Amino acid sequence: MTGFGKSEATISQKKFTVEVRSLNSKQFDLNVRMPGLYRETELELRSWLSERIQRGKADVLIYYESLEPEKRMSINQPLMLSYFKDLKQVTDEAGIQQPDFLNALIRIPDVMKPENQSVDEEEWKQVFALVKSAYEKFDSYRIIEGKKMHTDFMMRLTNIMKLREAIVAPMNERTERMRDKLKNGLAEVISPDKIDSNRFEQELIFYIERFDISEEYQRLHANCDHFDEELNGDAQGKKLGFISQEIGREINTIGSKANDSAMQRIVVEMKDELEKMKEQINNVL
Predict the structure, then answer these.
(1) Angle between helices 168-189 and 197-209 in degrees, nearest 10
(2) Cα angle vertex 50, ends 46, 55, to 5°?
(3) Which of 21, 58, 96, 161 has the fewest CB atoms nearer than 10 Å to its CB?
(4) Cα–Cα distance between 283 and 236 in angstroms, integer?
């Protein structure tokens, strides 16, 4: 689900900012960006966040701005002297005069580095509390989004049920048209006085049964009711997804049996509403 939360605080002469945000995604993908100093705490942080976010493409950013002069850099003297000897040997052999060794040496990785720093446990506790604060705001945002999704689900479900009712009239009209079409077609090849009315009705019933949607019509109602119960209970994304598949199966069967343009248009509208529901289901935990 979509969400965003941000918290800021000054801790140990550093201005920390924590952001927790996510975009809709069917799977869970957590990306954590934090100062290298706290990397050893990343596993703890990931575990805590994974239990709570659960789904979506989530980004957690922790960064700070120091409010005091930066700590001095230390020189790795043994490493620097080793590189110096190698560079001097190369320049002597190449005949290079007055080479700028110092400028070259300080650019070599690990020659210049910050003084050793370790994680201050008390400082990390405060940073972690800031993460929790940002998460609470993030979760509040998702709750608001969830309520909007619930409203949208109910609207789509209501629309499908209305369309289900709307299909009754063209369905009855289709039956009458089939009766007239078959009767007129038969009258073209057989004299009306020679048509066996009882046999004609039997054949008509057999023909109409091939396009009968009464079972699908009832099952569609039952599946929509089931979706409604789950949505207003302890809704789970996977379960809602399974029920929506059943709803889609009934709609598709009704469409395949429609044999009527008016009914087909209603089926298309139901499919459109269901597809919009499915898109949202991917965002339900």
Answers:
(1) 140
(2) 135
(3) 96
(4) 10
**Tokens for 44?**
């703890």
- Largest Cα span, the chain: 123
SS3 247: helix
Least confident of 16-20, 39-43, 105-109: 105-109
Both structure tokens of 98: 């007055």
Distance of alpha carbon 151 from alpha carbon 163, whole angstroms: 18
Q: For residue 9, give both structure tokens.
A: 């605080």
194: DSSP letter: G
Segment 15-32, tens digit of pLDDT: 999 999 998 777 789 999
Helix or strand run (H / E) with residue 55: none
pTM (whole model) above 0.85: no
CB of 3 within 8 A of CB of 21? yes
Q: Measured in Å, how far apart are the chain's first and last C-alpha atoms?
A: 8
| Residue from 140, 128, 124, 127 nearest 5 by CA | 140
- To the nearest 10°, the Cα dihedral for 110, 116, 122, 128? 0
- Cα–Cα–Cα angle for 250, 256, 262, rounded to 5 degrees: 100
**72 three-class SS:** coil
